[in-house]
Design goal:
Length: about 260
């Protein structure tokens, strides 16, 4: 079904693998189109409760496809960037949590793809960077926007202006990734985390993600009102009734509202 991706669902977890290993999984137009399609499919699949996104081979995604970009004019470049933004925004605002299992190089568009995910786990061999200025370009898939929100404005400027590549340990230190794993344990760790999240109330997880995303850049008064409203709405779900009953009855909750 997909030419540049591998996709499967196991135990309510969707696994998406960018599969262009000979091109280091570079993001060309086809990959972006297929990423949008697969995440749209995931969005509509009520059986999927969490997503793990990774790359095939030595790279997570080593960047956007330079061979394709080198042929673009101004109008085409804007269209390409718009396509990339659509994909990243869709992943960021997906109604389910997305875990990036960064197995290798996450450079340029690959770093941007990882930042669109909710949680980033990195192999100890992973490398991160935004090297675009070394090519006479700037990050075009949200890197100038998400990186400062994750690591702070000064550190983001340092990484983007210098085009330096950093290792997983440094990425963890500055807050770009949440956990560093041994390479052979990365996918097992990502799957275990996805299953842990999937065992929680799915509506509550989805609503919490929405509140965090929408409240982050809002003023505190607006964000507080948003959270209060969402908190009230969560009381209408069967998940809430099951979760509170299970707590009071000292048993494990079995959420049905998926």
């Amino acid at each position: 079904m997909y030419e540049t991706l591998k996709y499967e669902v196991r135990d309510n977890i969707a696994f998406v693998t960018v599969n262009r290993p000979k091109a280091m999984n570079a993001l060309n137009s086809q990959v972006l189109d297929e990423l949008y399609c697969v995440f749209y499919e995931i969005c509509k699949d009520d059986s999927v409760l969490a997503v793990v996104l990774t790359g095939e081979g030595k790279a997570f995604v080593a960047g956007a496809d330079i061979a394709e970009m080198s042929k673009l004019g101004t109008v085409e470049a804007r269209t390409f960037a718009h396509k990339g933004h659509n994909v990243m925004n869709f992943i960021e605002n997906l109604n389910k949590p997305v875990i990036a299992a960064v197995n290798g190089f996450a450079l340029g568009g690959g770093c941007e793809l990882s930042m669109a995910c909710d949680i980033r786990l990195a192999s100890a061999k992973a490398k991160f960077g935004q090297p675009e200025v070394g090519l006479g370009l700037i990050p075009g898939f949200g890197g100038n926007l998400r990186l400062p929100r994750l690591v702070g404005k000064g550190m983001a400027k340092y990484l983007i202006f210098s085009a330096d590549m950093i290792d997983a340990q440094e990425a963890h230190r500055i807050g770009l990734v949440e956990r560093v794993c041994e390479p052979e344990e990365l996918m097992a760790e990502a799957e275990a985390l996805a299953k842990k999240i999937a065992a929680k109330a799915p509506i509550a997880v989805s609503v919490a993600k929405d509140v965090i995303n929408n409240g982050y850049d809002a003023d505190m008064k607006t964000a507080s009102a948003y959270e209060v409203n969402a908190f009230g709405i969560s009381f209408a779900s069967e998940d809430m009734k099951e979760g509170t009953s299970a707590f009071l009855e000292k048993r494990k909750a079995e959420f049905k509202n998926r």
